[in-house]
Amino acid sequence: MFEYKKIIDISLPLNEKTIVYPGDPSLSMEKIKKPSGSQLTKLSLGTHFGSHVDAPSHVFDFGKNINEMPLENFVGSCRVLDVRECQEAVTKEVLEKFNIASDERILLKTKNSDRGYDEFYNDYVYLASDAAKYLADKNIKLIGVDYLSVKQKGSVDNTPHTAFLEKNIPILESINLANVEEGEYFLMAVPLALQDVDGSPVRAILLR
Ligand SMILES: [Zn+2]
Questions:
Q1: For 47, left (φ over 0), alpha (ψ -120 to 50), or beta?
Q2: CB 138: neighbour CB atoms within 10 A?
Q3: Is 154 left (phi over 0), alpha (psi -120 to 50) or beta?
Q4: Distance (Å) of CA 172 to CA 29, 42, 108, 127, 148
Q5: 3-state DSSP call for residue 168?
Q6: Burial call 62-101: b when 16+ CB within 10 Å, e when fewer
Q7: How far apart are CA 85 and CA 191, in angstroms?
């Protein structure tokens, strides 16, 4: 049986103040009291709200939707790489030092995690295009980044998305790795069973 000592929650808390990528819908919640007295809440949010995964149809018209991606990508052993030395972008040169193998799930801890998620900033550390290609060519199972997008804000070069998604490698975005040190963990970041959409919020946790 699989045993663990600790659960680390790497998800962003979700409420109406949770930061969103500029232009994306934020969360709205409406509490509804039923005649019986019980309460429920009506939610409105984007598929890329909070900690979430991108499916290929996020960038490709005929790409796979989130329900068509194997759950295996989102559950299993993973490695957190501490790349806080990267100032502007995570580069291929830095990643080459880690001996990344195929089939790994890789989460990148950058300075973004230390800076926090109280307000959106444009100059977040992103994944450089050649670094994205390098990882995608290794056929990893999932890439995770600690900010709202894998790509540079405002850049027209969408390689950081397309390099992964054209190979059906899901991108886990908006995870908070502030309380996670470099090393090996068991990741669970399972999308909701939403049908025919381009991504899904997840509750992302690491077990150790
Ligand atoms: Zn996304």
A1: alpha
A2: 15
A3: left
A4: 24, 25, 10, 13, 9
A5: coil
A6: ebbbbeebeeebbbeebbbbebbebeebbbbebbeeeeee
A7: 31
Tell how far the Cα of 35 is from the centroid of ligand 1, in angstroms.
Answer: 38
Please enumerate in sequence order all residues whose Cβ is within 8 A of that of 73, keeping only pairs 6 or more positions apart, or say none: 105, 141, 142, 169, 170
How many angstroms does the Cα of residue 79 sit away from the middle of ligand 1? 21
Tens place of pLDDT per residue across the chain (208 aa):
779 999 999 999 999 999 999 999 999 999 999 999 999 999 999 999 999 999 999 999 999 999 999 999 999 999 999 999 999 999 999 999 999 999 999 999 999 999 999 999 999 999 999 999 999 999 999 999 999 999 999 999 999 999 999 999 999 999 999 999 999 999 999 999 999 999 999 999 999 9
The answer to whether the Cα torsion of 98, 191, 167, 117 is positive or negative is negative
Alpha carbon distance 35, 107 (integer Å):
46
Query: Measured in angstroms, how far is the CA atom of residue 173 from the centroid of ligand 1?
Result: 6
- Which structure tokens are listed for 86? 């990267």
Give the active site residue among 48, 52, 58, 161.
Answer: 58
Nearest alpha carbon to residue 107 among 74, 75, 138, 145? 145
* d(CA 38, ligand 1 centre) in Å: 34
58 noted as active-site residue: yes
In the numeric block, which tokens belong to residue 202?
């997840």
